[in-house]
Design a protein that fits this description.
Blueprint: H1 11-14, E1 19-23, E2 30-34, E3 42-43, E4 50-51, E5 58-60
Antiparallel strand pairs: 1-2, 1-5, 3-4
Length: about 60
């Protein structure tokens, strides 16, 4: 029996992640966010303002 894993270690915890695009409410920059990051604070890479993902419109990839 071969015990070599077919995926990288930790793969199982990430295989159900989804990627979304969210437009910054301040400057309309598209920000990529993963489904496990909705509750984490993030700033827009363009205008540096905080982005509240619960208030922005998500665009699925």
């Amino acid at each position: 029996m071969n015990s070599t894993p077919r995926h990288c270690p930790g793969f199982e915890q990430f295989k159900s992640l989804q990627s979304f695009l969210c437009k910054c409410p301040e400057c309309d920059e598209e920000i990529e966010v993963f489904s496990d990051e909705f509750d984490k604070p993030r700033n827009c890479p363009k205008c540096k303002k905080p982005v509240d993902f619960s208030k922005c419109t998500l665009y699925s990839r």
